[in-house]
Structures are given as C-alpha cells and as structure tokens.
Amino acid sequence: MTRPPVGPEPGPESGVDGPVVGSYPTYAQAQRAVDFLSDNKFPVEHVAIIGSDLRLVENVTGRLTWARAALAGVSSGAWVGLLVGLLLSLFGEQQRNGFALIFGAVVIGALFGVVFGLVSYGATGGRRDFTSRSQVVAGRYDVTCAPAQAEDAKNLLIKLGWRVD
C-alpha cells in the first residue's frame, strides 16, 4: 500500500526529478547553495533540495517520573485553560469579570492537566520512563534542478567554491 503524497504534486519543471547539481553533507550547506543561486538571479523555482539516507534520531532529555508527569500536565493544562479563558472573556456575555474568568479557567485547566498527565503516565506501566525529542535527519542533501537549467546551476555553484559531488 502506497502513501499519498503530502502537498501538491511537483510540476514537470520543479527540479525534483532533475539531475543533481550539488550534493552536501548538511542541510545548511544545501540551503546556502540554493540561496547563492537565488542571489545570482537563477530561477530557483526549478530547484529542489532532496534529503537522502534518512534516519530517525531520538535524543533522550531526561527521566520521566510521577512529578515530571504532573508538572507537564499542569503546564499544558494551564495553557489550554488560559486560551479558553481568554476566548470566553473576549466573546462571553460577562466581560467585566474577565480577569476572574481567565484565572478560573487557568486553575481548572491546570487541575484537568495534572489528572490527565498522571493517568497517562500510569497507563504506560513503566514501559517508557523517559522523555525525548525526535527528529528526522538525512545523510546527505542533493540540490537538483530541472534538466533545462541544470548546466547553468552547476556552473554557478562552481563559482560558490564549495560545491560537493
């Protein structure tokens, strides 16, 4: 089963299926190459940056405890409560008690958040007692270009001085 593409389909002149005009070890370098093309009035709408050799990197940020689960629940619940309180105070009928309404919504949101955070943590049964952040990184980033403009792009990137293939 194939997954549908995200976003609009690239056009025939988008550069997605074109030849590689530069290959870089970091996204910043590939982005700098495209920026250089743009600065030199190259039609960058024909260029694409394609990450290859993708991998998921999960950085562990700490141990998850009952206290951290409660604290995370309080903070997220309070933010939701603040949003609800602000909306109710702006669009509600009793606008003169706005501060009390906002404060009450924050407190109620924090209470619901701590309960939800503790229940969620308890439901894991100790299978994931850590917090982390995940990101997808590529091993290399290819700058590709529509075939009609590829030679011009290569020549410009040679002028940049650190074109990598």
Describe the structure.
The chain has 165 residues and is an alpha+beta fold. The protein has 2 domains: 20-54 and 138-160, Alpha-Beta Plaits, CATH 3.30.70; 62-134, no CATH class. The protein has helices at residues 27-39, 66-91, 98-123, 150-160; strands spanning 20-24, 47-52, 55-63, 130-137, 140-145. The strands form 2 sheets. The chain has a 3-stranded antiparallel sheet. A two-stranded antiparallel sheet has the order 3-4. Helix 2 packs antiparallel against helix 3 (98-123). The mean pLDDT is 86.
Keywords:
two-stranded antiparallel ribbon, alpha+beta, 46% helix, Alpha-Beta Plaits, 165 residues, 21% strand, 4 helices, 5 strands, three-stranded antiparallel beta sheet, 2 domains
What order do the helices and strands come in, and which of them pair?
Layout: E1 20-24, H1 27-39, E2 47-52, E3 55-63, H2 66-91, H3 98-123, E4 130-137, E5 140-145, H4 150-160
Antiparallel strand pairs: 1-5, 2-5, 3-4
Helix pairs in contact: 2-3
